[in-house]
Design brief:
60% of the residues lie in helices and 4% in strands. It is mainly α. The protein has a two-stranded antiparallel ribbon.
């Protein structure tokens, strides 16, 4: 990274480097014969990359428990600390790690197991569609509508 870069420029360089690293991981998954039969794999990987980058708040390439907490709160699904720890252990495959990386994230999202976090992220789009319908203001009332 350019040592003279500061503020937003340094952040932009960091995000660019992170995106390049995640793209190389995505390419490995695209060439992996295990996922060759996955339908529309390239667009799924691109969507997963964007989601992962959005919630990688410490910019170290891993999502920690606070990043997971912020992710779920943003989706309107606040969880207790114990529930978050359970989700982390599901993503990491039973180990008691404090963070999970992009590989763990992709294994969860592309795997056959239905991890809680996978289900939440998959149905996030459906929740947004329902919110947009309820966001309209109520119809304007006139004096004739009053009792």
């Amino acid at each position: 990274m350019d040592s003279s870069a500061q503020g937003g420029k340094a952040f932009g360089l960091l995000k660019t480097q992170q995106e390049e690293k995640l793209n190389s991981i995505n390419e490995a998954y695209l060439s992996d014969p295990q996922y060759a039969e996955e339908e529309d794999l390239s667009s799924k990987l691109e969507m997963f990359k964007k989601k992962y980058m959005e919630f990688d708040h410490n910019d170290k390439g891993e999502i920690d428990i606070m990043g997971l907490k912020r992710m779920l709160e943003k989706l309107g699904l606040a969880k207790t600390h114990l529930e978050l720890k359970k989700m982390m252990s599901e993503v990491c495959g039973g180990t008691s790690k404090e963070t999970f990386g992009y590989h763990d994230f992709l294994k969860m999202m592309l795997g056959k197991r239905n991890a809680i976090l996978k289900l939440i992220l998959m149905f996030e789009g459906m929740g947004k569609e329902q919110e947009s319908k309820e966001a309209a203001p109520p119809p304007r009332k006139t004096f004739s509508d009053l009792p």
